User: Fold this.
Amino acid sequence: MFVFQSIAPFQAWLNQTRQNGAQIGFAPTMGALHEGHLALLRMASDAGDIPVASIFVNPTQFNDPKDLEKYPRTPERDLVLLSEAGCAAVFMPSVEAVYPPGVDLRLDIHFGNLDTVMEGKFRPGHFAGMAMVVKRLLDIVQPQRLIMGQKDFQQWSIVRNMLQQLQIPVELVMCPTVREPDGLAMSSRNVRLTPDMRRAAPVIYQTLLDAKALFPNRPAIEIAALSLDKLRAAGLQPEYFDIVDGNTLAEAPNFNSASFVVACTAVFAGEVRLIDNLILKGA
Ligand code: AMP
Assistant:
């Protein structure tokens, strides 16, 4: 596996790799890798692509400086895991390489309500920073396929919208959420859970499954209220539990005419903020 810290040698390698007709499947990450991240790379190889990853803890998508500071960083272990998973190359740039001083890379695009609902309400600026870094990484890597996780469903929706608006010729692939045996969605943040909170956290997935069992026989608003109660009863502090149209991320009193419906939630488990979602209908 090749490890690149600067852009020029990485692009030289990419150009050479593409010369023989190979296609690049790219999975951007912030490191502290787990099986969920490795599943993205496996999807790339299964599709016949050359799997390429990046590890970059993107400062512009952290609305809380303490969260950025506390974000787990395990670069040596990450490289071992990537290499074992068959990753061909990993890009680990410095902040200056991604954001050259004096260059304004902010995007002048609007996402409608996609970035104002759910995470957007609680993490102002998060998606603008996320979209900026994904665009920058795509400009550098120019992959044929971009593989991102369903775990961050709203992020996936915003990236899809960005690709459409900017007409970026890359195929966006969704990798299903990889879970621990007890249902907790794998996340780099899970290592920060206290033992008590780790025991409580699987209730998030259980609540999503219960919501799916009730849907569509009960109104979405009732299912959401019951779900919030369940999460609180388990000692978690939910920020939201929203049932939305999977294409528009809009809430609705009923989803009779929607073909794709997703339940999305964010909770604090002690000091650690976790997100998860489940498709209730369609796709
Ligand atoms: P992150 O390092 O948290 O920014 O995540 C990098 C990529 O991995 C994103 O596309 C995430 O959606 C994806 N990802 C993170 N956790 C999981 C998981 N448990 N299952 C599937 N994909 C995941």
Observations:
- Residues 29-30, 36-37, 39-40, 148-149, 151-152, 175, 177-178, 185-188 surround adenosine monophosphate (CB under 6 Å).
- The first strand starts at residue 2 and ends at 4.
